[in-house]
Design brief:
heterodimer; A: alpha/beta; Aspartate Aminotransferase, domain 2; Aspartate Aminotransferase, domain 1; 2 domains; seven-stranded mixed β-sheet; globular; B: Aspartate Aminotransferase, domain 1; 14 strands; 37% helix
């Protein structure tokens, strides 16, 4: 891998390969009789110093990015058991279809007569999401889960205000994702945290104590971030509704429920769906995703505009929703991502979805059963699509979950989500998804067993892990203290 | 689909778990809500799906387009997506385990560097959802940083960007105020009358929604004089020729960077840029990658300044953003690397020249320019017949002539916003002008 004469560099930066005046991709010469004249474009409006982009040939660029790609672990190359992230197979056909020239060329402001194909896809996607989630209406506009949360909270807030109620508080269990409280803050509401029981469920008594007329909604992740289905869900929903508040479901873990349970049937009023998790769209190294939001009938009028409607067999974008919270995307959302989700729904059908969720649950419980002997502090309940273990008491002295995670990389596995949920000490959240073979799950458990042995017999190996990745463990403190966020010849800032 | 377990293996797994049937695993779920009926279409095979999607796509086939208004048709070299969609990039997660994610991390570091060079700014983050949400987050940063509440926005900023800003600000202390611009650009004198000691920021778009170039130097000076921040929203391709935000001392630069290698794709996924001066680093939303070293002293890259972010700070984070548009940022990085310094300048020239040629031809044939401001690749013409009628007629030929402005601005009901990029030849433009003339 180390092709550079400088030992300390894995792959030089684009800028280090640049040579002045080297031509990249050629563009045609101008064929119109217009020059850049002073009258058209005053000198004071023009760029004074040229944009110093590197100058490389196409073959150089191709090799550079191909080599960079080889430094990554990915679903296509490795088991990627990242809990709550649902790193499932991303079907290749979807990548081909989304690049069909007629989709690529779709301008977002086209008149509806020239966008019937895409509008039909979006309309059906909303309809089937409603069906799967037990909701009455969906918006596809939010670009990711967190923007979906913001949208859902704003919808809930607008609903209460339309009834003349000011409800400034949102209840959030202490096991929730960080985006939940952050989204509440952007929506101008304040967070009150609800405790969890020792088993990791919502402490219903604590919830009841905190429930009052100030509360706009409760944000629940179902199944929870501990991978457990809330046993008192029906009671929670009933109590919350009786207090006049709404139940918001963070759909990050929906992969356990599709085809098995409709969130609308268990009292959920609003939910967001991470299509880059449950509906197989690529995570892309951190996006783009999409975070559609579904609501029950009483909240529909508040959804963002434009909405896709069907009017006498003609699909249109409609702005005619005066109670709408407005627009959350410059156009109508991450359509390319939603197109892939549509394809995935078409491939699965109801039976496929059921099989998907059941297989995800089966695989997680299989892992749980095999790991039980290695992790003494495991939850007593069967899990849903992911299993959370605590590293406490499982490893040799002085060895932390972080060390085990890094060592897993050496065994050819991406690490599980670690130190989350916050309420489980030394947590490791493992989500196998429905796609991994029993053989892979077995070898993962074998690796874990070996690593735990190493943690007792060869702790230095874990402390210095990873040993086989392109780079070794990184100095994160240096990164934060001596900020270097862009390349310059002398590399400061 | 995509399930590897055989029936025999399923039985073995249940046995290892210690249950007789799968449903014993679902003890917490009430029977009454389990496996409800659902009205979904039957599953398709890959072969059927391809045919189905091709048929849907074909319905929307187009001959040509002169529609811009925030989403632009530029040529995308084949290598861009051939590389970006490699599974090692596309199917990786956010690079939390840096040792196993150096490819993504180095590419983001390169992206940040390229964006800083483009915009002339100190720092850039790893991307935002789109240009509109980047603008909205910039307004929130400005309000927090200055402790003031007024955000001034000329009406020459894209109306849909303004709508997203209003949604994001609807629940904050900050409020937007829109300044009228009858000349198609913001008059610096009008701005001065609107600035006060409560102005947190001036946000303008350059080139603006009408394609016109704002008098950025004067606007920026005036806003700074009253202690407000300057937020410049810009169009990356234009910066091959135009002064970048850093040259007129913008505090925050944002952009919709769809033009850097991303398809139109009906509005997304696009790419929001967010860059700022170093004073604002710790208030910046979103992820950022920094350079560091590994245990052996090797250069390496890692997510840094995470103490600003939601997974650490929860409700005290600078923003709620988590997933961003990483793969779009990667695609744009490849595009920028292929284009290079000379390519960007040449590309900007081509856009400028073709648009000016089209404007002068349209003017000759009864479609005069509405504004006298300098422009880049987009301009407003007055139509001899209602623009909606032109759109309707052109639709029968599967051509998009531009955007009728009446839907956003009643006073512009006779006006059409036309965009011409490098992909149009002189012949294309001549045919387009002939077509409009006949309507």
């Amino acid at each position: 891998m180390n092709m550079n004469s400088q030992e300390k560099i894995i792959e030089p930066l684009l800028f280090e390969k640049s040579v002045p005046d080297r031509a990249g991709i050629p563009l045609p010469a101008s064929d119109v009789p217009v020059t850049l004249e002073e009258s058209h474009f005053p000198a004071s409006y023009q760029r004074k110093t040229p944009c110093e982009w590197p100058e490389l040939s196409e073959p150089q660029v191709v090799r550079h990015f191909t080599r960079l790609s080889q430094l990554n672990y990915s679903i296509d190359t490795h088991f990627y058991p990242l809990g709550s992230c649902t790193m499932k197979h991303n079907p290749k056909v979807n990548e081909r279809l989304v690049l069909l020239p007629d989709f690529v060329n779709l301008h977002p402001l086209r008149p509806h007569v020239l966008s019937q194909g895409i509008l039909e896809i979006l309309f059906q996607t909303e309809k089937w999401l409603c069906e799967l989630c037990g909701m009455d209406a969906f918006t596809l506009q939010p670009s990711a889960g967190a923007q979906g949360e913001l949208t859902g909270i704003l919808v809930g807030r607008a609903y209460h205000e339309s009834r003349g109620e000011k409800r400034p508080v949102v209840l959030i269990p202490d096991s929730a994702h960080g985006t939940n409280p952050a989204s509440v803050a952007v929506a101008g509401l304040s967070v009150v945290t609800v405790k969890s029981t020792d088993q990791g469920h919502v402490d219903v008594e604590d919830l009841k104590a905190k429930l009052n007329k100030e509360v706009a909604l409760i944000m629940m992740t179902v199944p929870s971030t501990l991978g457990l289905f809330e046993p008192r869900m029906a009671e929670i929903a009933k109590t919350v509704h009786e207090a006049g508040a709404l139940v918001y479901m963070d759909g990050a873990n929906l992969n356990a429920l599709v085809g098995l349970v409709k969130p609308g049937d268990i009292g959920v009023d609003i939910l967001h769906v991470n299509v880059h998790k449950t509906f197989s769209t690529p995570h892309g190294g951190g996006g783009p995703g999409a975070g559609p939001v579904g609501v029950k009938k009483h909240l529909e009028d508040f959804l963002p505009v434009p909405r896709v409607i069907k009017d006498k067999d003609v699909y249109r974008r409609s702005l005619n929703y005066p109670k709408s919270i407005g627009r959350v995307h410059g156009f109508q959302g991450n359509i390319g991502v939603l197109l892939r989700a549509y394809c995935y729904m078409r491939l699965q059908g109801l039976e496929g979805f059921r099989e998907m969720s059941e297989s995800a649950i089966l695989s997680a419980n299989y892992l749980r059963a095999k790991l039980k002997t290695l992790f003494p502090k495991m939850s007593k309940e069967y899990c849903m699509h992911e299993v959370v273990v605590s590293g406490e008491g499982a490893f040799g002295p002085g060895i932390r979950t972080l060390d085990v995670a890094k060592r897993l990389l050496d065994y050819g596995f991406y690490a599980p989500t670690i130190y989350f949920p916050l309420i489980v000490p030394e947590a490791m959240m493992i989500e196998p998804t429905e796609n991994e073979t029993k053989e892979t799950l077995d070898s993962f458990c074998q690796a874990m067993e070996k690593i735990i042995e190493e943690s007792k017999n060869e702790p230095d190996k874990l402390k210095s892990a990873p040993l086989t990745t392109p780079v070794r463990r990184l100095d994160e403190v240096k990164a934060a203290r001596q900020l270097n966020l862009k390349y310059t010849v002398n590399s400061n800032l | 689909m995509f399930i590897p377990h055989t029936n025999k293996q399923k039985q073995e797994m249940l046995q290892t778990i210690g249950v007789k049937s799968f449903d014993e695993l679902l003890t917490n779920i009430p029977q009454s809500v389990l496996r409800p009926p659902m009205n979904l279409p039957a599953s398709m095979t890959e072969m059927e799906l391809v045919r189905h999607m091709e048929e849907l796509a074909e319905q929307d086939r187009l001959a040509s387009s002169y529609l811009g208004a925030g989403a632009y048709e530029h040529f995308v070299p084949t290598s861009v997506w051939a590389l970006a969609l490699r599974g090692e990039f596309a199917t990786a997660y956010t690079p939390y385990q840096a040792e196993a994610s150096q490819g993504t991390l180095q590419a983001i570091y390169e992206f940040q560097t390229l964006i800083c060079a483009l915009l002339g700014m100190d720092v850039a983050n790893a991307s935002m959802y789109d240009g509109a949400s980047a603008a909205a987050e910039a307004c929130l940063v400005a309000a927090k940083h200055t402790g003031r509440t007024d955000i001034l926005i000329p009406e020459t900023v894209h109306p849909q960007t303004r709508q997203v800003i209003d949604t994001y600000l609807s629940r904050s202390e900050a409020k937007t105020r829109v300044i009228q611009c009858p000349k198609g650009i913001l008059d610096p004198e009008t701005l001065k009358q609107n600035l006060s000691d409560q102005t947190a920021a001036l946000l303008f778009q350059n080139p603006n929604f009408f394609g016109g170039l704002e008098n950025v130097q004067a606007l920026s000076e005036a806003a700074h004089k009253s202690g407000a921040l300057v937020i410049a929203s810009t169009y990356p391709v234009a910066l091959g020729l135009m002064a970048p935000p850093g040259e007129y001392n913008a505090d925050i630069a944002v952009a919709e960077a769809q033009c850097l290698g991303l398809p139109l794709g009906y509005g997304g996924p696009y790419l929001g840029l967010f860059a700022c001066q170093k004073e604002l680093i710790r208030k910046m939303p979103g992820r950022v990658v920094g350079q560091t070293e590994d245990n052996d002293g090797r250069r390496a890259f890692v997510l840094t300044l995470q103490a600003r972010e939601q997974h650490i700070r929860r409700e005290k984070a600078t923003s709620n953003i988590c997933t961003n548009q990483a793969l779009c940022a990667l695609a744009s990085t490849i595009y920028m690397a292929l284009l290079g310094k000379q390519g960007l300048r040449h590309l900007a020239h081509l856009n400028f020249q073709k648009a000016h040629y089209a404007a002068s031809e349209l003017e000759k044939h009864g479609f005069p320019l509405v504004f006298k401001n300098p422009f880049f690749n987009e301009f407003v013409v007055k139509c001899p017949v209602p623009p909606e009628k032109i759109v309707q007629k052109c639709a029968t030929e599967r051509v998009l002539p531009g955007l009728p402005l009446g839907q956003y601005f009643p006073e512009h009901k006779d006006h059409l916003l036309v965009c011409v990029t490098e992909i149009k030849t002189k012949q294309d433009i001549d045919q387009f002008v002939q077509m409009l003339k006949k309507i």
